[in-house]
């Protein structure tokens, strides 16, 4: 069996391909280049990234903070066991009632995520009578349309796939950490085992084979909604999500164009 073609090998051979590429329609040429790049992403042979547009959405009101999604992600993607490494995690927000006479509508905002929420959450130290509101917020890669991580990668190891996923070629990553510093959502880490950058890939090895991401599959409350915008199905959950909810994204002021959407998101979420 021939070894998989890496992005390094592909880019190294682009010079010899230029004449051939110029003889092809631009779209077809780009399509073939991307498909060769995707060989190292574990996508199956014949998968066409131009025929899909993957999207992840969350309904915060449905998340119960059980942590099953975090545990499934760790197991499915072989994420290091240490409590500092997560491709997917949950945060708990607790908003206190305002102090009497303060004139404020709400009080202090407390955020925690013990072990990424993998083991659930212990009872809050804030007395129940002092809590105005509490809720859980799932977090992962925001699939930015204008990804800072892609822009700063000096070797092109991080790249945008045509199907909406933002991926890392582990065969090409040099572990410089620039992408980790550039990500405004804190969703990347340098693996202590592989020495390359890691992040959520939407379980690319699963979705390109018609399966759901592991976190979506195990969610007991359907707080995670995943689908393909280019291939809607009957009673499509993604279409229903946008039809029924007022949808927001994280840190829209940064101009990154996040494609992960949230329903019922409090203004305190950051």
Give the termini distance in whole angstroms: 47 Å
Query: What do the pLDDT scores average to?
Result: 87
Low-confidence stretches: 1-5, 8-35
Strand order, main sheet: write it out.
9-1-11-10
3D shape: globular
Give the C-alpha Rg. Answer: 20 Å
Number of strands: 11
Quaternary state reads: single chain
Protein structure class: alpha+beta
- Report the order of strands and helices: HHHEHEEEHEEHEEHHEHEE
Work out the helicity level: 10-25%
Number of helices: 9
How much of the sequence lies in strands comes to 15-25%
Biggest sheet overview: 4 strands, mixed
Note down, in words, how this protein is organized.
By secondary structure, the chain is α+β, with helices and mostly antiparallel strands. It is 23% helix and 17% strand. The protein has nine helices and eleven strands. It has a four-stranded mixed β-sheet with strand order 9-1-11-10, covered by helices on one side. The N and C termini lie far apart (47 Å).
Draw up the topology in text.
Elements: H1 7-12, H2 14-22, H3 26-37, E1 54-59, H4 68-76, E2 89-96, E3 109-112, E4 131-139, H5 148-152, E5 158-160, E6 166-168, H6 178-182, E7 189-190, E8 197-198, H7 204-207, H8 214-218, E9 224-228, H9 237-244, E10 247-248, E11 261-263
Parallel strand pairs: 1-11
Antiparallel strand pairs: 1-9, 2-3, 2-4, 5-6, 7-8, 10-11
In short:
With 270 residues, the protein is of the alpha+beta class.
Jot down its keywords:
270 residues, 11 strands, four-stranded mixed beta sheet, alpha+beta, disordered N terminus, globular, three-stranded antiparallel beta sheet, 23% helix
């Amino acid at each position: 069996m021939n070894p998989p073609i890496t992005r390094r090998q592909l880019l190294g051979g682009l010079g010899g391909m230029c004449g051939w590429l110029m003889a092809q329609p631009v779209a077809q040429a780009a399509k073939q280049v991307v498909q060769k790049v995707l060989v190292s992403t574990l996508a199956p042979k014949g998968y066409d990234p131009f025929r899909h547009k993957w999207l992840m959405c969350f309904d915060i009101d449905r998340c119960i903070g059980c942590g099953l999604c975090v545990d499934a992600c760790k197991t499915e993607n072989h994420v290091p066991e240490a409590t500092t490494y997560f491709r997917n995690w949950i945060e708990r927000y607790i908003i206190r009632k305002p102090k009497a006479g303060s004139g404020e509508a709400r009080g202090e905002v407390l955020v925690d995520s013990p072990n990424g929420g993998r083991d659930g959450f212990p009872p809050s130290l804030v007395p129940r009578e002092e809590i105005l509101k509490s809720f859980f917020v799932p977090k992962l890669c925001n699939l930015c349309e204008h990804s800072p991580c892609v822009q700063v990668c000096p070797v092109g190891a991080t790249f945008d796939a045509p199907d909406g996923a933002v991926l890392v070629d582990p065969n090409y990553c040099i572990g410089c950490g620039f992408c980790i510093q550039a990500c405004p959502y804190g969703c990347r880490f340098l693996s202590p085992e592989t020495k390359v950058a890691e992040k959520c890939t939407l379980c690319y090895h699963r979705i390109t084979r018609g399966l759901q991401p592991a976190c979506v599959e195990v969610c007991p409350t359907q707080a995670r909604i995943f689908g393909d915008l280019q291939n809607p199905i009957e009673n499509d959950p993604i279409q229903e999500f946008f039809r029924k909810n007022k949808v927001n994204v994280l840190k829209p002021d940064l101009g990154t164009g996040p494609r992960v959407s949230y329903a019922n998101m409090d203004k305190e979420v950051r």
